[in-house]
Amino acid sequence: MDGAAFTTLERANAQDVDRAVAAARRAFDDGRWSRAAPAERKRVLHRIADIIEERALELTVLGVRDNGTEFNMALKAEAGSAAGTFRYYAEAVDKIYGEVAPTAEDVLGLVHREPVGVVGAIVPWNFPLMIGAWKLAPALATGNSVVLKPAETASLSLLKLAEYCMEAGLPDGVLNVVTGQGSVAGEALALSMDVDVLVFTGSGATGRRLLEYSARSNLKRVYLELGGKSPNVVFADAPDLEKAAAVSAMGIFRNSGQVCVAGSRLLVERSIHDDFVAALSRHAGALRVGDPLDLGSQVGAINSLDQLEGNLGFVADATAQGAEIALGGGRILESTGGYYMEPTVLTGVAPDNRVFREEVFGPVLAVTAFDGDEEAIALANATDYGLAAGVWTGNLGRAHRMVRGIRAGIVHVNTYGGSDNTVPLGGVKQSGNGHDKSLHAIDKYLDLKTAWIQL
């Protein structure tokens, strides 16, 4: 990647968004999709997955050029994940049942599950296709219409996905994609009086604004995934410290740290601190950073110059507050014109340091030593976020205590990263509310309606 523009996009205004929402509303109200038989919706979603798989290479290259994720990771995490997500919810379509309430003999109480109507979805630039599928597939499976707003710097794969959906037989108006600035198109979507549910993955500042827009408009339900500052806790009794070092390095440096669940805070038991940091730095230093379309690259590009400068600012602030650079710390490959940064390891990071508390969203690892379980839990929870965490220990009792003690939506034990559609992803505290993935995600896109029938 050379930092040069290679295409342009339409910059939607508020009127464009209104037209997209109106199209979604018409499609929902006339029943072309919302009242389609579950078997028909299932067939279309499976066909979407088929097309994604058939054209995975095209879709992946398009996305990599857009956002800089290393190709090998993008092929699996973007196209591969999106196809799997559409298949998962395709299979769920005809397995969503209502309920019969335990009422008196002369009354029949029925609980119906109905689609909410028009869903607004705003997705980020780091994994647009994967996260877009997390929103689109369950919303479409349950019969809703969707207006999707991709990130300004990563829209192309989702525009292509919309073409695939039409080809697969999704009726006109059911999926609408509007590109443009969040401050214009995203705001218009959030303020719309005709959007029933808004789902969002991105920054906390934007999430707060979306809640305000809901209050100013129609009190639409808003579900937020707002990132994290995830602790990765390594105890001296971990079953394989060398493996823990290698996996922990990838847990922060894959996709240049531009991952919401990245293990960006490494908490290491003091007795092994120096040796473990040395091992992790050795693994991180061996990673090949470069052109994300080069199959030999293990770490790709930073998404934008603004993001790169922000990452470097965190490093400067950390060292000014007493942290030391054990590895990296600077921009590299500047002669290419692209935005690349060394995997960076900072040691001696105190809990009051900004890099300990705030999400960098870049290849910057903050390392802090601890003594004992209680301090580990206290440090792990010493942040406003609660999305993910990791624990490395050979003690089963300790593992359970850490899972219970750390406030996070997902806690990995003796691994970092990895899950599938069978389990939910969501956070606590300022990492947001609601869940993507699993059958639990469907709840966001359904309303409950009670029928109370006198017999």
Architecture overview:
The chain is α/β, with parallel strands linked by helices. It has two domains: 14-226 and 432-454, Aldehyde Dehydrogenase, Chain A, domain 1 (3-Layer(aba) Sandwich); 231-413, Aldehyde Dehydrogenase, Chain A, domain 2 (3-Layer(aba) Sandwich). 40% of the residues lie in helices and 18% in strands. It contains 14 helices and 17 strands. A seven-stranded mixed β-sheet has the order 10-13-14-9-8-15-16, sandwiched between helices. Strand 8, helix 9 and strand 9 form a beta-alpha-beta unit. Helix 3 (56-67) runs antiparallel to helix 6 and helix 4 (71-92) packs parallel to helix 5.
Layout of secondary structure:
Layout: H1 14-29, H2 38-54, H3 56-67, H4 71-92, E1 99-101, E2 107-115, E3 118-122, H5 128-141, E4 145-149, H6 156-168, E5 175-177, H7 182-191, E6 197-201, H8 204-216, E7 221-225, E8 231-234, H9 241-253, E9 265-269, H10 273-285, H11 305-320, E10 324-327, E11 331-332, E12 340-341, E13 344-347, H12 354-357, E14 364-370, H13 372-380, E15 388-392, H14 396-405, E16 410-413, E17 446-454
Helix pairs in contact: 1-7, 2-4, 2-6, 3-4, 3-6, 4-5, 9-10
